[in-house]
Amino acid sequence: MDLRHLRYFRAIGREEHFGRAALQLRVAQPALTRQIKDLEAELGVELFERLPRGVRLSAAGQVFLRDVEDILAQVDRAVDRARRLASGHLGTIRVGLSEIISGHGFISYGLLKFREGEPGVVLDLKSMGSMQQIMALKDGTIDAGIVYDAHVDDRDGPLIDRARIGVGHTMLAVHEGHRLAGRAAVTMDELADEPALWPTRRTAPGYYDRLMAACTAAGGAPRIVQECTTNSILLSLVAVGMGIGFVTVSPPLASFHNIRLVPITGLDLGFDVLLVWRRSDRSAALHRFIEMMVPAADRPPA
Question: Is CB count within 10 Å lower at the N or C end of the chain?
Answer without folding.
Answer: C
